[in-house]
């Protein structure tokens, strides 16, 4: 449909919900993934400037995650404009997306919608290195993300083995050889930070007497789901984790799904990026031409405006990629 046609769906959702709606989608495409970032605040600000007498806000969010502190900052930022905040989840709202959703008074999930664990992972120069085979026999060395709960799981295994002092020392030594001790400290700090951030967001809308329930929810999402990739559907999020997930509304689900599907088509969500697809054989037998292509990495859209983070790329035969420009476009 495109931007103009989506306005009708946005308007219908706003009318049904008695709110204003901002849609925020980040690409999940392999090779072209987008993520929640700190510059989202300035884009949301531009949308808020067009919304008069804003009291209730909904954010339709599709994302695999992103910058933890950016998710937290965005969750607090929207509260400056709206007394009541809802998050609409058409499909994936994972990691940093789930963290953002913890700041909402209400979470509306379609039956396809999923939340996830919020336990953080760290990737940096001090991470373990994996060797990944490349075409032509070359090997690329890349840092491996290390999750807080992976280290906690190793610690639990060592405790379950009931090793003596020497055995525990040996196990710790093996861990330190594989994972930089400085990284272990960073992981513990990030675990403490995610619990603090999640608790802070929930306190924005919960009553003081709900402290025990907040602690249980945050502990479940941060430490007890067993995997960062664990997916929570609506019934489980509502009945087992005790998140403020709304009861199923078939007509609203249909509107949210139609809106999401239009964004998905425009952004080619779920479609792996393959630079070779842009190259075609020259029918005259001459050299192939350089192909220019543009991908939509993020869309932030409301009834009054649409902002797109685009990546402009040049593809050179036999499939080499050169990024020419990353930029926001209204």
Written overview of the protein:
The chain is an alpha/beta fold. It has a domain at 3-117 and 225-273 and 296-305: 2-enoyl-CoA Hydratase, Chain A, domain 1, CATH 3.90.226. Helices cover 39% and strands 23% of the residues. The chain has helices at 3-17, 40-48, 68-78, 96-101, 148-160, 165-178, 181-203, 211-224, 234-239, 250-267; strands at 20-26, 56-62, 84-89, 106-109, 115-116, 121-122, 129-133, 139-143, 146-147, 231-232, 291-302, 306-316, 320-329. The strands form 4 sheets. The protein has a 7-stranded mixed sheet. It has a two-stranded antiparallel sheet with strand order 5-10. Strands 6-9 form a two-stranded antiparallel ribbon. A hairpin with a 5-residue loop joins strand 7 and strand 8 (139-143). Helix 3 (68-78) runs parallel beside helix 7 and helix 7 packs antiparallel against helix 8 (211-224). The protein is globular and about 65 Å long. The chain starts with a helix and ends with a strand.
Summarize the structure.
This protein has 330 residues and is an alpha/beta fold.
Question: Which labels suit this protein?
Answer:
single chain, 330 residues, alpha/beta, 2-enoyl-CoA Hydratase, Chain A, domain 1, seven-stranded mixed beta sheet, two-stranded antiparallel ribbon
Main sheet specs: 7 strands, mixed
For the largest beta sheet, what order do the strands appear in spatially? 4-3-2-1-11-12-13
Tally of individual helices: 10
Q: What is the CA–CA distance across the termini? A: 18 Å
């Amino acid at each position: 449909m495109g931007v103009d046609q989506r306005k009708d769906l946005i308007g219908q959702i706003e009318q049904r919900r008695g709110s204003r709606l901002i849609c925020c989608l980040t690409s999940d495409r392999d090779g072209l993934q987008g993520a929640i970032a700190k510059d989202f605040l300035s884009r949301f600000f531009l949308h808020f400037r067009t919304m008069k007498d804003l009291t209730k806000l909904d954010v339709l969010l599709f994302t695999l995650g992103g910058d933890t502190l950016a998710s937290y900052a965005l969750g607090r930022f929207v509260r400056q404009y709206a007394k009541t905040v809802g998050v609409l989840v058409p499909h994936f709202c994972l990691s940093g997306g789930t963290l953002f959703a913890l700041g909402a008074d209400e979470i509306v999930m379609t039956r396809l919608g999923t939340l996830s664990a919020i336990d953080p992972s760290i990737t940096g120069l001090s991470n373990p290195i994996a060797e990944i085979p490349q075409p032509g026999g070359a090997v690329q060395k890349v840092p491996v993300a290390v999750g807080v709960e992976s280290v906690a799981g190793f610690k639990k295994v060592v405790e379950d083995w009931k090793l003596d002092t020497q055995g525990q020392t040996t196990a710790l030594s093996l861990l330190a050889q594989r994972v930089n001790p400085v990284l272990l400290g960073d992981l513990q700090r990030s675990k403490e930070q995610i619990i603090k951030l999640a608790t802070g967001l929930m306190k924005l809308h919960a009553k003081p007497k709900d402290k025990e329930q907040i602690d249980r929810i945050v502990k479940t999402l941060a430490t007890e789901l067993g995997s960062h990739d664990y997916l929570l559907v609506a019934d489980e999020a509502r009945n087992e984790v005790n998140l403020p997930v709304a009861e199923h509304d078939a007509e609203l689900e249909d509107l949210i799904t139609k809106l999401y599907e239009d964004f998905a088509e425009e952004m080619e969500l779920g479609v792996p990026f393959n630079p070779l697809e842009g190259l075609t054989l020259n029918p005259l037998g001459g050299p192939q031409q350089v192909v220019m292509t543009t991908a939509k990495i993020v869309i932030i859209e409301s009834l009054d405006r649409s902002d797109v983070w685009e990546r402009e790329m040049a593809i050179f035969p036999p499939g080499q990629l050169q990024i020419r420009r990353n930029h926001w476009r209204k």
